[in-house]
């Protein structure tokens, strides 16, 4: 299926919307890094908040102090979560397993 042809105005609007979403996700990751947001709180609103829901779980975890790519990969593998999974796509068991691992 071919992509729809956009007018220049529609394209500009889509680019502006995408940039705003990227900025919002960056702000969310910064809040997690500063300790203003917690992973349980963020994951709790993943189904209702579109910005949180479309953010990759790995990106959220990398925002935590002390969690780099290697530690996040190990954590995701241990909990059975695919690295490309987005927050809204986590099942209840996956979310609980991730939160349990973060507590320990």
From TrEMBL:
InterPro entries: IHF-like_H2TH, IHF_actinobact
Keywords linked to the UniProt accession: Coiled coil
Chain segments annotated as coiled-coil in the UniProt record: 11-38
Domain of life: Bacteria
Keyword tRNA processing: no
UniProt domain Integration host factor-like helix-two turn-helix: residue ranges: 34-101
One Pfam family cited in the UniProt record for this chain: H2TH_5
UniProt KW Coiled coil keyword: yes
Official protein name in the record: Integration host factor, actinobacterial type
Native organism taxonomy: Bacteria, Bacillati, Actinomycetota, Actinomycetes, Pseudonocardiales
Gene name linked to the record: mihF_2
